[in-house]
């Protein structure tokens, strides 16, 4: 059962007995090494290095829950980068909420071009070439407007504003060893707020009512339990884990925003499920047998 989330207490929740992988100057070093990494929390690993590196993530556990062979296939099958979608609105919104200072570095709003004229076509071509050279993702003015309205909708919710504005770390990478199997696990919370021991995960959905009933389908209860246990492995405390969910569909002139928290029963089920997935992976690694047929 999903529960509504309440504000945290207004006192410090204690010290942070985690491993801080920054250098002596206080600057966070990006461990570019992706073949081996020690358990701990790292604040400077790029998204690309994280996904290319070691450790089992929640999404990989999802594959194992489907069929173990799917886990291997997704790791090894080539990706046709020419066919991947240019813009995912959720990705842009995610950046706007969690890393607003990075938004202009990653996204650029396309001006209007008169495609009925040769000059307009050439201007558009030159613009797109420049964007390709800088690595920025092009968004339309309408997409930019929608993202901003969704962001302001989050900020209109008191707890949403608190989650966004509270001091914390976006996109930190946590690594820990599963005590039962010894497998290196990893997670990359959207935002952690260590002072109060909160984790926020940002989701977008076309149907916010559907989100309330579909969290088992998407194994969000597994995500909650897996991330929470990873956090506890570093900080020594079970965090408050919340989903900040923003609708991409307008209702009554606004983009709805809600904040959800799993009930204890759902969280326990998620914990049992991910441990079962890890045991399956351990068996596959030990026998080098990877079942591919769904049962």
From TrEMBL:
Residues 57-292 form the Putative exodeoxyribonuclease 8 PDDEXK-like domain. Pfam families: DUF3799 (PF12684). InterPro entries: PDDEXK-like_dom_sf, Put_RecE_PDDEXK-like_dom. Residues 1-22 have a biased composition (Basic and acidic residues). Residues 1-25 are annotated as: Disordered. Signal peptide: none annotated. Gene3D superfamilies: 3.90.320.10. This is Putative exodeoxyribonuclease 8 PDDEXK-like domain-containing protein.
